[in-house]
Amino acid sequence: MKETVKKKRQGTKKKSGTEIEYYVDGNVVRKVETAVPKKAPKPSEGEATKTNRMIRKNRERALSMDFPYLVVFSAAMVVMLFLCANYIAIQSKLTSTIKQTQKNESNLEKLRNENDSLENMIATYVDLDHIYDVATNKLGMIYAKKNQVITYEKTESEYVRQFEDIPR
Fold it and tell me: What are residue 84's phi and psi, to 5 degrees?
């Protein structure tokens, strides 16, 4: 009986400037396959110079700034600058309008609260018995008699027009 001895080796190989790692397991050495990129075939001398000339012309055209291009570009920049300044001005007006509106709403709320408190104070101050006493005793007022009260019938409209003085 023969025993097969398995050997393990590890190392690196250098091939045209690149380092390839390999690992061998067992007694059989496997071949390592490396992928080498294939280069495109070079064009002929005449085609290459023609292509290079075209590329150079395209680059020069792309990098050149002639007068009409400069005028259009300048006009576009002026328009863009105007639009940005206008936008900032509108935003500023909007912000100031919002602040003024908030200030006015706060002032309105304050005035409403003050008005409500004054109305409550007036409502609690009115004493109908005191008013009746002053009207009858100091001012000499009396209740109206039946023949002194004139009633008006309501018409279709919601108000009454007075064409003459009220009779006494």
Answer: -65, -45
CA angle in degrees (0–180, nearest 5) for 103-104-108: 120
Residues 39-98 have pLDDT tens digits of 766 666 666 777 888 888 888 877 777 788 889 999 999 999 999 999 999 999 999 999
How far, in whole angstroms, is CA 28 from its chain's centroid? 70
Spatial distance between the Cα atoms of 55 and 63, rounded to a whole number of angstroms? 12
Give the rounded distance of the alpha carbon of 9 from its chain centre.
66
pLDDT digits (tens, 9 = 90+) for 30-54: 666 666 666 766 666 666 777 888 8
Give the Cα separation of 112 and 118 in Å (integer).
Answer: 10
Q: Report the candidate in 33, 29, 37 with the shortest Cα–Cα distance to residue 10.
A: 29
Give, for 121, the enclosing helix (H) or strand (E): helix 67-125
* Beta bridge partner(s), residue 12: 21
| β-bridge pairing 8-15 and 18-25 | antiparallel
How far separated are the first and last CA of the chain, in Å rounded?
151
Partners of 144 in the β-ladder = none
Is 0.70 topped by the overall pTM?
A: no
